[in-house]
Structure prediction request, 130 residues.
Amino acid sequence: MTTYAEVVEGVRAAMAAYAQALDDGRTDDVVATFCPDGVADIPGFGTFEGHAALHEAYSGWRPKRPQRHVVLNTLVTDWSDDRATASSDLLFVLRGDSGWTIQLVARYEDTLHRDGATWRFHHRAATFVT
Prediction:
């Protein structure tokens, strides 16, 4: 039986892998954080389902300047050995000519499934606060 702490660590690892790959412009690695039938709902951009659609979307969002998706306050709200739901806050920061600035504040609502030892996003929905 999987413990809550093990689930939380797996969920946080998935979120970190996603954020770092996204900020580095590694599209294949971003897509790999999703289940094959995974879905991303991103306000103003659309809903993308499956690896092919996710790859097409994320390949168009490669960073042109240094950026960071800072994910914090992650709360795993429901879990089992192979499924978890979580809510996290997000700060998106971008480095410009005068330094780093917060570009947006958001919340992620996620459902993840365990694939062997790795947790992957089954559904990732963002809600922008600003």
